[in-house]
Amino acid sequence: MKITHSLVMVAMAILEMDRENDGQVWGYALSKRSGVRSGVLYPQLDRLMNEGWLDDHWEERVEGQKRPPRRYYTLTEQGRSNLGTLARKAAAEQRFKGIGVAFA
């Protein structure tokens, strides 16, 4: 997988949110955390799922809830390992030095 700026930002946000949210991340929060707009984010998430790095499931509908159900993404063991590796590779590349995200 080609390492792009948006992929690094999404990967870092997923890894951070995975630690904070019991392994569940969702699109809107991920977009806010990563700074990647939805038109770029969702294709990245699709690629990560196709690689087997993420699984997804829909939140159960709650009676009276005003917002639509969330689509949650969870890291697979393969994804956790590969995103960690991707983050370390990006940390070593000069082009990612100024993105302002601490690498795992």
TrEMBL record:
Protein keywords: Plasmid
Domain Transcription regulator PadR N-terminal: 35-83
Organism field: Glutamicibacter arilaitensis (strain DSM 16368 / CIP 108037 / IAM 15318 / JCM 13566 / NCIMB 14258 / Re117) (Arthrobacter arilaitensis)
InterPro entries per the UniProt record, alphabetical: Metal_resp_DNA-bind_regulator (IPR052509), Tscrpt_reg_PadR_N (IPR005149), WH-like_DNA-bd_sf (IPR036388), WH_DNA-bd_sf (IPR036390)
Keyword Aminoacyl-tRNA synthetase: no
Span of the signal peptide: none
Protein's name according to its UniProt entry: PadR-like family transcriptional regulator
